[in-house]
């Protein structure tokens, strides 16, 4: 359980960076702006919102156990 609290934010960061990279690549090609927006917001959500939530709620769960 403790290892999962450490691994999940790292995986979330890596997937978020991957989506941001895909979004920047889509912007570079300039083919589909809608796909660029989808990739960027997904990546930013994973980096800015989901990762801190996992850290906060995961650490509070560890103190309960």
**What's the main sheet like?**
none
The fraction of residues in strands falls at under 5%
Task: Please indicate the count of domains.
Answer: 1
The coarse overall form would be elongated
Instruction: Return the structural class.
Output: mainly alpha
Give me the count of strands. 0
Radius of gyration, in angstroms, nearest whole number: 15 Å
Q: Gap between N and C termini, in Å?
A: 10 Å
Q: What percent of residues adopt helix (DSSP H or I)?
A: over 70%
Helix and strand succession?
Answer: HH
Q: What's the mean pLDDT score?
A: 87
pLDDT under 50 segments (min length 5)?
A: none
- How many helices? The count is 2
Written overview of the protein:
The chain is mainly alpha-helical and 65 residues long. It has one domain (6-64). The chain contains two helices and no strands. α1 packs antiparallel against α2. The protein is elongated and about 50 Å long. It starts with a helix and ends with a helix. The mean pLDDT is 87.
List the helices and strands and how they pair.
Elements (H helix, E strand, L loop, with lengths): L1 H28 L3 H32 L1
Helix pairs in contact: 1-2
Keywords: Membrane, Transmembrane, Transmembrane helix
């Amino acid at each position: 359980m403790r290892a999962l609290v450490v691994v999940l934010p790292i995986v979330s960061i890596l997937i978020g960076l991957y989506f941001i990279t895909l979004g920047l690549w889509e912007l570079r090609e300039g083919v589909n702006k809608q796909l660029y927006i989808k990739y960027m917001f997904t990546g930013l959500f994973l980096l800015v919102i989901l990762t801190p939530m996992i850290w906060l709620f995961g650490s509070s769960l560890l103190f309960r156990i």
